Amino acid sequence: MSEPTRYGRLIGASLGPGDPELITRRAWAVLQSGARWLYPVKKAEESSYALSIVERGGLTVPADAEQLLFPMTRDPEILGRAWVFAAERTVALLGEGRDLVFLVEGDASTFATFGHLARVVRELVPVIEVETIPGVSSFAAAAAAADTVLAEEDETFAIIPAAYGVELIDHLLDEFDTLALLKVKPLIDEIIELLARRELLTSSMFIEKVGSPDERIVRDVASLKGEKVNYLSLMLVQNPKRLRGELRRGCRQRRETGTAVLAAVDPASRP
C-alpha cells in the first residue's frame, strides 16, 4: 500500500507595493527558506512586477522559480482555463513535498491573486496548508508617501476599485470621509470631472507606482486629464465637507461616560 502524498505548504508572501524596504521580516525569511518561488505574470514570458520587487531588494531569483499566467481579461473562458492550469500546477508542485512561496505585490489579502489561487488549490486538495503573510498595501504606502492620513479618530474610510464607475464613487463621497480609488487608469478623466463638479480637486491626490523607482505623486490632479497613466495607480480623495451622522457607540462616548461615573464615585479623580 502506497503512502499518502505529503504536500508542501502554500505560502502567500506579501511584498508591499514596490519598495523592497517594506518587505516584512517574515516574508524576507520565507523567500530565503528554500521554498520554491512562484510568481504571477499577465502574459507569457512577461516580466513580473512582484518578482522585480525582490530583485531590487538584492535577492537572486532561484533557477527553479516558476511563473504562473493570470491574463488581464474579462473573458470567462480564458480566465477559467488559466485558473485551472495555475491551480493544478500549484498542486502538482506541492505534491513534491516542498513548500511553495507565491510572490504577491502589495498585501495578499487585498485585491490579490493569491486568495483565489489558495481557495481553488484547497478545493482540489483540502489537506494542503496555506499561510498568508500580510504586507503593506498600496493605499497605505501612498498615504505615507503623500504625507497624508487615511482616517483620524472617528473618520470613515473606504477602498473601491474605480471600475465600479463614477456614479458609485459620487454616492460614496457622501458616505465616507476618504476614498481610496484603485486602478483609476480607465476612468481617470471621468473621475477628474466628478471631482471638479464636487469641488474636491484640492483635497485629492494621484499616486502612481508607489514605492518603486518610478513613483509619482500628483497633487494637481486636474493636470492629468487626457494623460495615459500607469495601471498601478490610485487616487486618494478626501471630502472635508461631508455631513456625518451621530456616533451612537463610539469609543469617545464610552470614555466620557466612564470618566463621569468615576468622577461621581471618587471626586478626587475629577480633572
What does the model show?
The chain is an alpha/beta fold. It has two domains: 10-136, 3-Layer(aba) Sandwich (Cobalt-precorrin-4 Transmethylase, domain 1); 139-238, Tetrapyrrole methylase, C-terminal domain (Methyltransferase, Cobalt-precorrin-4 Transmethylase, Domain 2), CATH 3.30.950.10. 32% of the residues lie in helices and 18% in strands. It contains eight helices and ten strands. It has helices at residues 25-31, 49-56, 76-94, 113-124, 138-145, 166-172, 188-197, 251-265; strands spanning 10-14, 36-41, 66-69, 100-104, 130-133, 157-161, 178-182, 204-208, 216-218, 233-238. The strands form two sheets. The protein has a five-stranded parallel sheet, with helices on both faces. Strands 6-7-10-8-9 form a five-stranded mixed sheet, with helices on one face. α2 (49-56) links the parallel β2 and β3. α3 packs across α4 (113-124). The protein is elongated and about 70 Å long. 30% of the residues are buried. The model has no long low-confidence stretch (mean pLDDT 90).
Question: Top keywords for this entry?
Answer:
271 residues, alpha/beta, Cobalt-precorrin-4 Transmethylase, domain 1, Methyltransferase, Cobalt-precorrin-4 Transmethylase, Domain 2, 2 domains, 5-stranded parallel sheet, 5-stranded mixed sheet, 8 helices, 10 strands, elongated
Task: Give the secondary structure arrangement, pairings included.
Elements: E1 10-14, H1 25-31, E2 36-41, H2 49-56, E3 66-69, H3 76-94, E4 100-104, H4 113-124, E5 130-133, H5 138-145, E6 157-161, H6 166-172, E7 178-182, H7 188-197, E8 204-208, E9 216-218, E10 233-238, H8 251-265
Parallel strand pairs: 1-4, 1-5, 2-3, 2-4, 6-7
Antiparallel strand pairs: 7-10, 8-9, 8-10
Helix pairs in contact: 3-4
